[in-house]
Amino acid sequence: MQSLLARLAPEQAGALWIGTIVLFVLFGDLRRPLSRKNLTLLALLSLAPFLYDLLDVGPTTRAWSFRAVFLLTAGMAVWGVRLSRGSFGEWLPNLPVPALKTIAAGMVLMTSATVLTQPADDAGIYTSLGAQRWRETGQLPYSDEKLKGPESPAFGAAATYGPVLYLLHLPAQQLLGPPDNPPEADPMDRSYVRPPMLATQLTTWVMFLIGLGAFFLIARRLATEQAAWACRTSSASGAASSSSVGSGMPHTSFP
Q1: pLDDT attached to residue 171
Q2: Helix, strand, coil in percent for the chain, rounding step 5
Q3: CA separation (Å) from 237 to 4, 13, 111, 154?
Q4: Which of 111, 180, 224, 231 could form an SS bridge with 193, CB 3.0 to 4.6 Å?
């Protein structure tokens, strides 16, 4: 089953192109390529190049990439507040509801395949490890001496994330079985059994579905059903892009 899903999951470049095409099909002005609307869509996509193979570049490039991500995200937040005070009429989708539902189903399938087949990295590994240690010791990772300091996994990374991220991993880990280590076990030992990769993948997938449903309800309440399905479709395609573009993105438990 997993090998079949892996064939449906696009690589970074493919996911980026799919997300771009879907966004412009839904909201683009096809008659005027340089219209303000199209330039706005390009601005919304400006984060993507800075997430492409972000963990595979040199430290200097990576540092500037993170600066750009933070600045662009802050700018988009301010921009979003200003846009929320205007009319939604300009941003109604180009397609009818049946077409939007079809594209949305395809995007959800593609994103699900991406999330459930890509291996976890960075935050996903260490939030899952922190959650497992919480189950093993009964204490939050912040008080677990085996997760802190230079002699711990990734110099203490497993004890640095927010409690909600650890909490979100618990249901998936519980579903996959009890922890295999005693409370006194050291995560740095070779005999220590790390949490299964599937726990992070399932956690991310569930958060993606919850976030997608929230976007749909918000858009339907503020605008129309057509806008809600467009929001759901573009969000699903955007999630697929961020799951493939950006090495750590699909493993942080954010939709």
Answers
A1: 96
A2: 70, 0, 30
A3: 20, 13, 7, 32
A4: 180
Residue 177 phi/psi, 5° resolution?
125, 170
Query: Model pTM?
Result: 0.81
Mean pLDDT of 157-175: 95
> Which two tokens mark 61?
């490039």
Whole-number Å distance between alpha carbons of 10 and 238: 13
Q: Which residues contact 86 (CB under 8 A, 6 or more apart)?
A: none
Residue 2 CA: distances (Å) to CA of 30, 116, 171, 209, 247: 38, 8, 21, 19, 20
Packing angle of the helix pair 163-175, 197-222 (nearest 10 deg):
120
Cβ atoms of residues 196 and 183 within 8 Å: no
What's the distance, CA 154 to chain centroid? 22
Dist CA 90 CA 78 (whole Å): 19
State how far the alpha carbon of 150 is from the alpha carbons of 31, 117, 131, in Å.
58, 31, 20
For residue 187, give Cα distances in angstroms to 181, 190, 229.
Answer: 9, 8, 45
Separation CA 231–CA 239 (nearest Å):
12
**Are 237 and 105 a contacting pair, CB within 8 Å?**
no
